[in-house]
């Protein structure tokens, strides 16, 4: 460490001392940048003089003035959203006007290559998907992961249940770890975002996992949900280890780099959006109706003209008004200030009583140029969310709504009679009435969160050929979560455990703090090459603390956990400290055709067995744009990248901990069943990717193709130990996993005529994984409730997501294990189409997932529970088939189904009001006023018999996502919006 | 750029890099302490002993007390959200990957490991902290508790095997057949007996003698509920010798097809006589004498696991009782509607309906006392019945009947049997009757007995689920044992065949 530290200090001195000033004769080129067609000025376009470090940006009216050498020069003019122009300016000409063409296919963006360095996507050597604000906010989304569904090739984004307020998993390039973190790293304006999920303690009530402590069956929300999608300028998805190497042991699951909006020089821009809409139950299981004869035989009851109540509609049929107000002001001054302020009020009413999602956010992004060398940018967002998700999912007490529906004949009426809910005799002894549960149970989950970053950039040195920039960024992401569960004693099921009334009070305190410093030196050797060297450090601290209190036997109307007769509490904490140093060299040459990059990142982390050891994460990449192109081809780039990233061991896995318990007022202690490993080290993901990017027909079509091979060594595994050793799990680095995949993206603009424009994007991705080596015996991963339902066998030569199930083969009870399919889909495709006809725009996103199996245990609740093996679902044929299959051979494997689906994720119809009308309606300053009709998740095409093929009873999981147990049902949303700019 | 600015910046950069390193990079465990390897203080020793006792109590919690009752056709658990309590027991087979079929294994070995860790550290502890005599007492205590959990594994897994845990936690031990497992447990109890005797040497009566440890070591009050088992001699006599007698009875009985060494019956009687003591037993109070698990609803504590509204009693349990047996009246709640008519609870799983109007008194969650009711680990009542069982094995039917009558009269309130049975089968029937009603919901005793005597079959019980009318395939298989968890087999190459070394 000391050596690296002194080297770094030395490097800083060397760079700052050795740069030499250069004085030459120079001239000024001035001009104006406008949009082709409309002639509107383009603000904040970058104008750079090729072969030099001279550059500037255009002002409010599109004008610029840039220093250039005497003699012929070339200007590169670029702006996100437009295709760049290369403009020759001969000696003696000092004024030039440039027109830029809109880059509808987004062929050019800046992509991240290092801590403080970016490169044009034209030269990028890795496949990075960039999502623009426009793509992100086509239709209103509760969370950013909702908004990204179907848009990133290679990312499978799946919601865990239909409960409002998030809870989604983003899996990039397949399963990248079996037991270490499964979440990609989210970085917002340089702040490492905490995407932890704090389980809300629903388990204390449902006993899904037994005991009092919160469990993974609590349907937790992973907290990236808090980020306001409307503030985002771009989202860049770094999929591979080559791109993620700069993030070391946080990079192997992919990195999602989010940049929020900033003000641009010019008069204040005000943007206001108002949306009104509603949510609607989008799928039902369909419950059985009964004839009087069936009531007699199946329930032994005499019912004349049995009613057929639609329980699902009664409980989940609400369409309360939802709304969203978004407002922002942005701009910049001549004195070097830029600002962006935004506010959000979001209120989604849930389809069930006492559920919903509310979010309010305030953002201030302010930048200031201090003199010619120093600039500071401070970005901050304060937000609050209130999520109420109700009770759903697995439970062991008989009160999850679908559990209750499974045993209650539909002729029973849950609705209030004479002002009181009837108790339900069909689920004795719980007697649960789900309408009463929805009426009385409250599950508020409040989050207050502050995300802030401050960045200082110092131009240490700048000359025609060289620049030295120092960047320091400090970031904080802090949130407080307060989740409560009130289940009052008046509920029918409450006396069941002997303690009527339950309160859970769960408090989480989470903070990420990071500090990064980078020194970047750029040397521009005329047109021969540009060399960018950078070095720096990153220091991070991640801390969480959760306290949970459970109270049972609670006096009526009390909401204070200390009023409960029986109380229990618990605490869980984590503290992780990371430090890394990196150096990187980028070399752009051959007329900006060849880009070579090499970098190494050395990182240590306190979760490793050897906490002081630095692990190395190198990367090398090359991209080359072909100089000779076939006809109709604008650009062909070949690229290849090699890189290594990591994934940290879980917290405290180096230690075998004492388990403390109490026995009659004495403290007891015994070794935990989880055996620690003092030698644990990070997983090491080595990825090679190669690809081809091409553009055709003058920017009318583009193709992106990528092949990758991702190898995860030192795979962190929790193999099940022989229980007879007295231990349950160990943490080892014990294997190798290899993922092969293909990602394709095709964007075309078949028509671009006056008043009609059509842009179509199609993406395809497939990935196959295999465990190629195991140092330990094959074992069952343990994805759910035991292998008789479904499990994954971790075995050499097998897919890490290969689902098996056991069933009795013979009457002597021997069990055989049979393969049931793979949890991961065969492939995913996304289709986005955007039609513009004059002022009308129609945009849609379809998300197709082919294959992947799901363990539909929800059906198992309904099948075979009536005499004669009949079930309580309307689909009696399906139910009977599964029940017969259950006995004939398959056991619970009869409940494993294919999860193929196509979803219409987004549909938007928008109309831009004519200026004359918008002036009259709003103000003469109003421009680009649009009326929109939008819908999300409007329709699902699937043969899956459950509520939604997007499901995960155990929340976010590396491989065990496939379990469907009586979840909260899915919903679709409709909104009407008006959006105006002033 | 001035050199001042340049150097200042370099200094700033350097300072940041230094500052980054200055933060202590080491983070120790914060959610609990790391397991101690080394000598123990008296406080740590107390904590470790309580840990072993608590783990033993926790294991016996989850399903231990009634899974045996489910398989032995005494009880059901009707859980609307979990059909495996019913389905695995009655319709196909127990699964080695489920909590039900693969249960009663892992947690018992956790107790055994906790005990081994404690003893390894005790060996490293200086005699000035814990005297050699105290160490012997602690070893005897721990070895007895380990033997108890080994026996519980054996009772539920029988011929499928019992794993012997080696000292090295990275290694797996042999899985041995039932006779070898029982021999091992019996020997472990003898070792513990010797240690306890040494621990009680001299004037020491308390488990940890007199001296500095005395005030530090506290036993759960369950050890004083029905007799004081913090007294070494009481602990040794009732728990160690009592368990020894129990193990020897089943060693001698062997399996339904192969009897064990009949000499074990005599060994059992010797151990049981020592455990029961010379005083004639006649009262319920005497029969209840023994160490108990204590339960509590205080934060972090464990409540009585049988206080569970989903547990019901198989109608056979009530129907087979002799008229006037107060053990039925004391233990059974009959469910009736407001008009007084029987109101059975029923449960349908996979098309088969189970129905009963009875539930255990101790399971009622409406009675707060049930949450803190102590459960016996072993008690004189059970030991007297075991002695009767040993005597039946030796064909001493009159002596056996005398023992049965002690329990029958004091607990059942029934008239004594005056004419002893004349055949072993009849004697066993009489024995099984008393054991069924006196040891109800106290563990897998009935399952073990029915299995050992070959009486867990359709010849003795009505099938809960009829044979498949189409194929004639038997669906209710009378599961006789739980399975060794799949994880154990995986580590051992996929399958397990217990070894059976000659004893």
As a percent range, the share of strand residues of chain A is over 45%
Number of helices of chain B: 17
Cα distance spanning the termini of chain B: 91 Å
Helix content of chain A: under 10%
Largest sheet of chain A: 22 strands, antiparallel, barrel
Structural class of the helices, strands and pairings of chain B? mainly alpha
Query: Whole-number radius of gyration of chain B?
Result: 27 Å
Helix content range of the residues of chain B, please?
A: 40-55%
Number of strands of chain A: 52
Which residue ranges of chain B are poorly predicted, with pLDDT under 50 across at least 5 consecutive positions?
A: 209-215
Indicate the proportion of strand residues of chain B: 5-15%
Structural class, from secondary structure content of chain A?
Answer: mainly beta
> Main sheet of chain B?
2 strands, antiparallel
Q: What overall geometry of chain A do the principal axes of the alpha carbons give?
A: globular
Strand order of the largest sheet of chain B: 1-5
Shape of chain B: globular
Overall mean confidence score, pLDDT of chain A: 90
Tell me the number of helical segments of chain A per DSSP (H or I, 4 or more residues long).
12
* Radius of gyration of chain A, whole Å: 30 Å
Number of strands of chain B: 10
């Amino acid at each position: 460490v000391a050596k690296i530290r002194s080297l770094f200090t030395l490097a800083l001195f060397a760079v700052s001392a050795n740069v030499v000033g250069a004085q030459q004769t120079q001239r000024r080129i001035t001009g104006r940048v406008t949009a082709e067609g409309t002639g509107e000025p383009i603000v904040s376009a970058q104008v750079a003089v090729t072969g030099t470090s001279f550059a500037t940006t255009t002002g409010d009216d599109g004008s610029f003035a840039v220093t250039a050498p005497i003699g012929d020069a070339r200007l590169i003019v670029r702006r996100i959203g437009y295709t760049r122009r290369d403009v020759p300016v001969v000696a003696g000409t000092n004024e030039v006007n440039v027109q830029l063409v809109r880059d509808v296919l987004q062929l050019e963006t800046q992509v991240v290559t290092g801590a403080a360095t970016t490169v044009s996507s034209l030269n990028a050597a890795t496949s990075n998907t960039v999502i623009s604000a426009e793509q992100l906010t086509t239709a209103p989304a509760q969370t950013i992961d909702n908004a990204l569904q179907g848009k990133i090739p290679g990312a499978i984004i799946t919601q865990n249940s239909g409960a409002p307020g998030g809870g989604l998993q983003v899996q990039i390039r397949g399963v990248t770890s079996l037991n270490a973190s499964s979440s990609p790293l989210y970085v917002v304006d340089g702040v490492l975002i905490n995407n932890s999920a704090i389980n809300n303690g629903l388990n204390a009530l449902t006993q899904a996992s037994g005991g009092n402590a919160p469990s993974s069956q609590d349907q937790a929300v992973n907290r990236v949900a808090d980020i306001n999608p409307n503030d985002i300028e771009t989202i860049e998805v770094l999929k591979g280890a080559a791109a993620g190497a700069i993030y070391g042991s946080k990079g192997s699951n992919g990195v999602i780099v989010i940049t929020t909006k900033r003000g641009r020089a010019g008069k204040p821009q005000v943007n206001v959006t108002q949306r009104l809409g509603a949510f609607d139950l989008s799928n039902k299981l369909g419950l059985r109706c009964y004839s009087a004869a069936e009531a007699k035989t199946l329930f032994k009851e005499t019912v004349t003209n049995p009613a057929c109540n639609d329980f699902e509609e009664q409980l989940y049929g609400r369409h309360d008004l939802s709304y969203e107000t978004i407002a922002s002001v942005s701009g910049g001054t001549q004195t070097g200030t830029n600002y962006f302020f935004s506010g959000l009020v979001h209120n989604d009413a849930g389809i069930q009583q006492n559920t919903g999602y509310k979010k309010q956010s305030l953002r201030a992004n302010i930048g200031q140029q201090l003199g010619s060398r120093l600039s500071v940018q401070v970005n901050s967002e304060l937000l609050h969310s209130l999520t109420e998700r109700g009770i759903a999912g697995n439970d062991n007490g008989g009160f999850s709504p679908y559990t209750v529906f499974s045993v209650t004949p539909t002729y029973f009426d849950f609705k209030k009679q004479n002002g009181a809910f009837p108790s339900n005799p069909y689920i004795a002894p719980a007697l649960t009435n789900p309408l009463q549960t929805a009426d009385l149970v409250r599950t508020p989950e409040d989050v207050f969160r502050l995300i802030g970053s401050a960045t200082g950039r110092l131009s240490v040195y700048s000359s025609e050929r060289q620049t030295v920039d120092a960047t320091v960024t400090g970031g904080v992401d802090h949130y407080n979560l307060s989740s409560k569960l009130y289940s009052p004693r008046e509920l029918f099921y409450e006396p069941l455990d002997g303690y009527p009334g339950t309160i859970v009070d769960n408090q989480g305190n989470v903070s990420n703090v990071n500090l990064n410093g980078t020194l970047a030196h750029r040397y521009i050797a005329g047109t021969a090459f540009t060399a960018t060297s950078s070095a720096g450090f990153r220091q991070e601290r991640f801390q969480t603390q959760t306290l949970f209190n459970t109270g049972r036997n609670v006096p009526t109307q009390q909401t204070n956990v200390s009023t409960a007769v029986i109380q229990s509490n618990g605490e869980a904490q984590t503290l992780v400290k990371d430090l890394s140093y990196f150096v990187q060299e980028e070399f752009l040459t051959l007329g900006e055709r060849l880009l070579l990059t090499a970098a190494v990142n050395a990182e240590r982390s306190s979760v490793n067995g050897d906490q002081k050891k630095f692990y190395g994460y190198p990367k090398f990449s090359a991209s080359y744009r072909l100089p000779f192109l076939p006809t109709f081809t604008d650009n062909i780039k070949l690229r290849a990248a090699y890189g290594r990233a990591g994934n940290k061991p879980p917290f405290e896995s180096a230690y075998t901990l004492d388990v403390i318990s109490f026995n009659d007022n004495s403290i007891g202690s015994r070794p935990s069943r989880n055996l620690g490993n003092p030698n644990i080290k990070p997983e090491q993901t080595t990825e090679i990717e190669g690809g081809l990017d091409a553009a055709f027909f003058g920017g009318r079509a583009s193709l992106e193709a990528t092949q990758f091979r991702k190898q995860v060594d030192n795979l962190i595994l929790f193999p099940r130990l022989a229980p007879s050793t007295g231990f349950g799990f160990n943490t080892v680095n014990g294997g190798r996993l290899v993922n092969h995949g293909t990602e394709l993206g095709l964007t075309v603009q078949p028509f671009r005529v006056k008043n009609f424009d059509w842009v179509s994007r199609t993406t395809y991705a497939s990935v196959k994984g295999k465990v190629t080596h195991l140092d330990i015996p094959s074992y069952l991963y343990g994805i759910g409730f035991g292998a008789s339902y479904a499990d994954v066998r971790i075995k050499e030569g097998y897919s890490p997501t290969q689902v098996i199930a056991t069933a009795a083969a013979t009457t002597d009870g021997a069990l055989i294990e049979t393969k049931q399919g793979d949890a991961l889909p065969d492939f995913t495709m996304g289709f986005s189409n955007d039609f513009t006809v004059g002022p009308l725009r129609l945009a849609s996103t379809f998300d197709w997932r082919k294959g992947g199996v799901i363990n539909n245990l929800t059906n198992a609740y309904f099948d075979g529970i009536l005499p004669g093996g009949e079930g309580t679902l309307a689909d009696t044929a399906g139910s009977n088939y599964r029940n017969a299959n259950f006995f004939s051979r398959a056991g619970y494997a009869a409940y494993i189904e294919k999860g193929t689906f196509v979803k219409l994720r987004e549909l938007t119809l928008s109309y831009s009001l004519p200026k004359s009308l918008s002036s009259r309606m709003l103000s003469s300053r109003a421009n680009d006023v649009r009326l929109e009709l939008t819908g999300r998740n409007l329709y699902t095409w699937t043969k899956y018999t459950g509520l939604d093929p997007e499901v995960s009873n155990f929340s976010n999981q590396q491989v065990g996502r496939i379990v469907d147990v009586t979840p909260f049902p899915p919903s679709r949303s409709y909104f009407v919006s008006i959006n105006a700019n002033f | 750029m001035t050199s001042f600015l340049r150097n200042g910046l370099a200094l700033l950069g350097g300072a940041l890099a230094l500052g980054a390193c200055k933060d202590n990079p080491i983070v120790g465990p914060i959610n609990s302490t790391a397991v101690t390897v080394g000598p123990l203080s008296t406080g740590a020793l107390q904590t470790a002993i309580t840990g072993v006792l608590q783990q033993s109590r926790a294991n016996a919690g989850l399903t231990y007390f009634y899974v045996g009752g489910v398989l032995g056709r005494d009880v059901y658990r009707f859980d609307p959200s979990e059909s495996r309590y019913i389905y695995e027991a009655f319709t196909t087979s127990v699964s080695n990957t489920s909590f039900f079929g693969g249960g009663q294994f892992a947690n018992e070995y956790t107790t055994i490991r906790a005990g081994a860790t404690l003893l390894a550290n005790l060996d490293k502890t200086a005699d000035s902290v814990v005297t050699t005599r105290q160490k012997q007492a602690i070893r005897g205590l721990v070895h007895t508790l380990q033997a108890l959990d080994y026996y519980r594994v054996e009772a539920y897994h029988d011929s499928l095997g019992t794993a012997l845990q080696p000292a090295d936690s990275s290694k797996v031990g042999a899985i041995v057949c039932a006779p070898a497992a029982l021999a091992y447990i019996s020997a472990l109890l003898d070792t513990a007996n010797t240690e306890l005797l040494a621990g009680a040497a001299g004037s020491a009566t308390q488990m940890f003698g007199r001296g500095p440890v005395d005030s530090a070591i506290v036993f759960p009050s369950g050890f004083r509920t029905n007799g004081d088992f913090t007294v070494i001699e009481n602990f040794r006599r009732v728990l160690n010798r009592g368990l020894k007698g129990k193990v020897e009875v089943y060693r001698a009985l062997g399996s339904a097809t192969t009897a064990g060494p009949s000499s074990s019956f005599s060994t059992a009687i010797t151990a049981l006589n020592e455990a029961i003591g010379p005083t004639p037993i006649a009262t319920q109070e005497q029969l209840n004498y023994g160490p108990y698990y204590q339960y509590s609803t205080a934060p972090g504590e464990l409540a009585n696991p049988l206080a569970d509204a989903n547990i019901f009693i198989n109608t056979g349990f009530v129907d087979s009782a002799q008229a006037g047996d107060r053990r039925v009246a004391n233990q059974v709640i009959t469910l009736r509607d407001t008009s007084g008519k029987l109101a059975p609870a029923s449960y349908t799983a996979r098309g088969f309906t189970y129905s009963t109007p009875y539930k255990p008194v101790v399971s009622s969650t409406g009675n707060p006392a049930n949450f803190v009711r102590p459960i016996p680990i072993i008690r004189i009542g059970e030991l007297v019945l075991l002695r009767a069982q040993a005597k039946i094995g030796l064909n001493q039917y009159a002596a056996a009947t005398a023992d049965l009558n002690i329990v029958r009269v004091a607990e059942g309130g029934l008239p004594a049997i005056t004419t002893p049975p004349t055949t072993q089968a009849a004697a066993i029937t009489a024995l099984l009757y008393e054991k069924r009603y006196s040891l109800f919901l106290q563990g897998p005793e009935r399952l073990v007995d029915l299995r050992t005597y070959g009486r867990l079959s359709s010849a003795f019980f009505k099938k809960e689920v009829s044979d498949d009318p189409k194929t004639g395939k038997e669906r209710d298989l009378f599961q006789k044992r739980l399975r060794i968890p799949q994880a154990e087999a995986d580590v051992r190459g996929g399958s397990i065949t217990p070894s059976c070394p000659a004893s």
